[in-house]
Design a protein that fits this description.
CATH topology of chain A: TIM Barrel
Strand content of chain B: 5-15%
Number of strands of chain A: 12
Order of helices and strands of chain B: HHHHHHHEEHEEHHHE
CATH superfamily of chain A: Divalent-metal-dependent TIM barrel enzymes
CATH architecture of chain A: Alpha-Beta Barrel
Number of helices of chain B: 11
Largest interface: A-B, 56 and 49 residues
CATH class of chain A: Alpha Beta
CATH class of the largest domain in chain B: Alpha Beta
CATH architecture of the largest domain in chain B: Alpha-Beta Complex
Number of domains of chain A: 1
Strand order of the largest sheet of chain A: 1-2-3-4-7-8-9-12
Structural class of chain B: mainly alpha
Oligomer: heterodimer
Helix content of chain A: 40-55%
Shape of chain A: globular
Number of domains of chain B: 2
Chain lengths: ~290, ~260
Amino acid sequence: MSSFARTAIPAAAGIGFRIPHTRAFLDEWPAVPWLEVHAETFLAEGGLRLAILEELRNRYPLSIHGVGLSLGSAEGIDAAHLERVAALVERFEPGLVSEHVAWSVDGGVYFNDLLPLPYTEEALEILCANVDTVQDRLRRPILVENPSTYMAFNTSTMPEWQFMAEIARRTGCGILLDVNNIHVSAHNQAFNPGPYLDAIPLDRVQEIHLAGHTVKQVADASLLIDDHGDRVADPVWLLFDSALERLGPVPTLVEWDTNLPALPVLLAEAAKAQTRLTAVAARMSADAA
Amino acid sequence: MLRDLQRTFHHALLTGDPEGLKAVVDMGPIPLADRFHVHANTFIGFLIDALAAAYPVTAKALGTSLFRAAAAAFVRHAPPAVPQLSAYGDGFGPFLAQSLRIRPYPQIVDLADLEWARMACYFAADARPVTVADLQGIEPSRYPALGFVQNPAVRLLRSRHGAWSVWHHVAELPDEPGPQDVPRPGAAEAILIFRTAGTVRMDRLTDADMVLTEQLFVGARLGDAAAAAFATDPAFDLQQALFAHLNRGTFARVLPPSPGAMV
């Protein structure tokens, strides 16, 4: 395996690698501290996709971010899919492996979306059992990402941040804190994001996600849609600053999936995150001195 | 129960009707329909995009509007069973063949089958192809008893309506032609789809070459496969055909003569 085998992801601003940027990467090998890829994009038996991932892996620390394990499915984890993801993780030995607090599969149908869960004890038990299954098979802890939500359920018995904290406490997994998702969910479900950061166990947060979202006017209100299709919005930068004040520098990723711009635009967005990470590191050093 | 909620959501996504979720979703100033639409749009919209990526020339031939309508119907008819979108789209050609609006254009159905074969080749397992040099170490008198194993990144397709010609014609058009302007169904074509340095390519084969290749892929030895090819066309140039296959990387392995075989 390459020199980056199981290399720790640095507390710096990386980007999500997307296939349309392949040519730009092969031409320039841009100076980016680390990359994250979607596991399911690279679940091929062979061919160019895996060859590209090998090339990336030889040059950058790598994180693998799953979008299809469906940790919240009541029917449990699809064993065949877990095997596919495990094979990818074993081959590329990423520094981090992460998934979502959501569900995507029911009755053997994959809905290609991160669907919402009720925050109940039953859902918590199911999700924790599924996280255990994944961690046992991968033989490593994973990170779980807080979702962006568009609907909340009247059966929920706890706030999302408590649900997240409990998953980490019960399974030993880490947390991937998506501050854009916090902003989106807080707006859509009308809650104050302040307590979210106070309630999350900071020692479990091993990665932060940043992304853009869309504002859609509906009736007399607005709905924020987490489409990863724009620059990071100002309120999300503020929330990122608040998170960094609590956490210090953390591996941070800028995601961009729809309306994908040219690579330099995405790199510039990551540079903004890096400026904040560098500033908070300097402040913490000064405080320590 | 979570299982019941997920079953209700499942039904809502396939039908596009969130009514069943009303009882369990917190209502606020944002209507349920708008909240639900985000998920429905992700489910259907992104899968249509995935089909458009898998079937770019078919999409062009049908035109955006007709293609997206057919793709949306396919998503509801056959939603994905696995999360990797590169595996999604098998069966789209036969599905199109059932469509009243597309049935009059069987060449476009064949085109879809061809594009799915291209997808299969693109994502297939890697294998070191058999080369001319591999055969040079074998005594020529033993050739008839050799077997040739299909490279996993190779597909053989019989198109009744000339999909190879239609693919090239439509792919080179600057704009969407609309199905009525796609070339009419042509003569049957034998098409070999293969992958070279990660790129999918395709060649038309002669009828005799098609027979030879088909026979080898199902396990016939070269002597028997060649005999079948000569029965199709007595003027078949076996040496040239075999050389072309070795250059394409059609085979992944040479099987030695089976024990006791007459060579």
